[in-house]
User: Fold this.
Amino acid sequence: MKIVLQNLTKIFPSRNKKSGEEVVAVNDFTFEIPDGKLIGLLGPSGCGKSTTLYMISGLQKPTSGKIFFGDDDVTQLSTEKRGIGLVFQNYALYPHMTVLQNILFPLQNLTGADKMPKEKMIERAHGAARLVQIEELLDRKPSELSGGQQQRVAIARALVKMPRVLLLDEPLSNLDARLRLQTREEIRRIQKETGITTVFVTHDQEEAMSISDMIVVMKLGVVQQIGKPQEVYDNPANLFVAKFLGTPPINVFSGRIEAEKLYIGDDCVMDVPGAEAQEVTVGIRPEGFVLSENGPLKCHISNIEVMGRDMSVVSTHPASLNASVRSIIDADHMPGLQQETVRYAIKPHKIFVFAKETEERIRFEVK
Ligand code: ADP
Ligand code: MG
Assistant:
């Protein structure tokens, strides 16, 4: 089922009546989440991800704007009536209940026409447990499970009602690195198997990029960009998005455009046909550097890190806005770098130019 967010806004009143300012947690968010897709809601802490999710779930009411599930306006509908499954960072299982009882719980609370016979509930609970591969744990208490297993139980509990929409708020944050990787693959598998439209909130760009059909990047309550992960990475709308996506992060320089040429410090790095003369900020992805004897960008080597398949040359440049410039070079193409300086050519699709003041992308034709 598609979900439509229409000019969704949430304003929290100030806590301090005298001087406090209200918080615009989510500001005019409009987006149609396609049916059956997994959407990653991504941004730094405090940018409004959870608030957006809670509005979709009905736990919070929007200050203005509307929410549709399919063609139904659910804006005023209570959480229970929306047909959603919710999973939080802290699994929030009932400690005194077994895994099976935890998973059954949402079904036992159904009333009226939704009420189910006991055998059917148990069958459903087993189905959900099978989906998240915890069938052999059904008799245990939550305290007898690892963090990853507890989170699977929480996911099973969210799925058991066969929700129309699955909402996950930083579900992997409490897991260690390996479990995080494994569990996110699980979530992706389950989402694909069930085809449930899913919103996955995270502050971790790699996590969002790896499992989402589309990502929404937010900053201070405002959507910055929406697109397929690779598209957003390859084509960031502004400096914030460029910096937020990618590990190692994009290298940022101060630069200027003069006579349709782009300068980083004194180095004239490329032609920018049609671009107006101005001060700019330049971003270059680490994989965008090519070692080249006559390359235009001249850096001072500080260190070379061997990472197996790739090598990372750490260097400095007078116009760099970061402490160091980090390039990733295919180890097969790495000559012995004996000298103190290194010259780079730059792959044209890996360099982005932003207006210095607005930090919006400046576009020009790449030859
Ligand atoms: P995120 O999930 O991206 O970390 P949140 O949606 O939790 O961000 O919060 C967005 C903003 O709204 C933050 O500035 C936060 O302090 C504020 N906020 C969230 N919930 C409340 C609330 N109940 N009352 C007041 N301010 C809130
Ligand atoms: Mg949050």
Q: What stands out?
A: The chain has eight helices and 21 strands. The mean pLDDT is 93. Residues 53 and 219 are 15 Å apart (CA to CA). The pocket of adenosine-5'-diphosphate (ligand 1) is lined by residues 12, 23, 25, 43, 45-51 (CB under 6 Å).
